[in-house]
Design goal:
Layout lengths: L3 E4 L8 E5 L8 H6 L4 H4 L7 H4 L10 E4 L30 H4 L22 H30 L2 E9 L17 E4 L8 H13 L4 E3 L7 H5 L7 E9 L4 E2 L4 E2 L3 H18 L4 H5 L1
Parallel strand pairs: 2-3, 2-4, 4-7, 5-6
Antiparallel strand pairs: 1-3, 5-7, 8-9
């Protein structure tokens, strides 16, 4: 089973790696049939078409890793032990975890707006099988790409690409009074060096977008796991307002999609440049 796509550049010219963990849209017929939701509702928690927005990354010398299996089946941006006792038989409740409590563990119980995926529970063996088939291969690939960046450039920068519902940013205060269109998450400085995040923010700002940091999304498992910046490993989570390119009701690209994709292509070109700053040093 193909669980993700990895598109590599002809030559790696940057330490930046792009990943889109929630854009998978291969909904198995058996999964849709088993769910109490229709496919369009299942897709409501998907970062639809984010992988296509960043599709030019290999043309600029950076790898692009994109999920194929949907987030509603297994969420690779969660810890492997974030198992939901309200969904998975035989799992005992542990320390309070807000993601698991809300139904968004490694095997999700709900999609957007808390809509339950299943009528009952699933077996623990099934949850573990999903994790073995999808979660582990994804993180083995991310780890290998980050290690390759370290070996080639002496640093690794993971740009973790996501989208957020338009309504998610309705109440976010912004110092300049403008509604944020991009939220960058660095877990308040613990996932990436400030200068790296500053440069990513500058790339989006130069493209005319309003950028906020860490609210309401500071970063999940990838941001927690693939640092620390003190060792030259950086993670910046990027959340894009879906309404900029997507009809959220139909989960289809809207009339602005092509224009917005060209804009993101320009941002990608700027961001990969961050990972070229130490190439001369790495070559010495």
């Amino acid at each position: 089973m193909r669980v993700h796509d990895l598109k590599m550049p002809v030559a790696r010219t940057t330490s930046v790696v792009f990943a889109s963990p929630h854009s998978g849209r291969a909904y198995a017929r058996e999964f849709v049939k088993r769910s109490i939701l229709d496919e369009r509702t299942l897709r409501s928690s998907e970062d639809a078409f984010v992988d296509t927005l960043f599709a030019s990354a290999p043309d600029h010398g950076a790898p692009l890793l994109a999920a194929v299996v949907p987030r509603a089946w297994v969420d690779v941006n969660r810890s492997v032990d974030e198992l939901d006792p309200n969904l998975i038989e035989g799992v005992r409740g542990g320390a309070h975890n807000p993601r698991v409590a809300s139904g968004l563990g490694v095997v999700p119980r709900v999609v957007a707006n808390g809509k339950a995926i299943y009528r009952g529970k699933i077996a623990l063996d099934e949850a573990r099988e999903r994790i073995d088939e999808v979660w582990h291969p994804w993180h083995e690939t991310v780890s290998a790409l980050m290690d390759e960046s370290m070996a080639l450039f002496g640093e690794a920068i993971l740009v973790d690409c996501h989208s957020m519902p338009h309504e998610a940013i309705d109440t976010i205060p912004h110092s300049r009074g403008a509604r944020p269109e991009i939220v960058l998450g660095d877990r308040f400085g613990t996932a990436a060096a400030c200068d790296v995040v500053d440069q990513v923010e500058a790339a989006f700002a130069a493209a005319g977008m309003n950028v906020a940091r860490n609210a309401p999304f500071a970063g999940a498992f990838a941001a927690q796991n693939y640092g620390p910046p003190s060792r030259g490993r950086h993670v910046v989570q990027v959340e894009i307002d879906r309404s900029l390119y997507l009809n959220e009701r139909t989960v289809r690209p809207n009339g602005n999609y092509r224009t917005f994709r060209r804009l993101i292509d320009g941002v990608v070109a700027e961001v990969v440049g961050i990972g070229r700053r130490d190439m001369s040093l790495a070559a010495e």
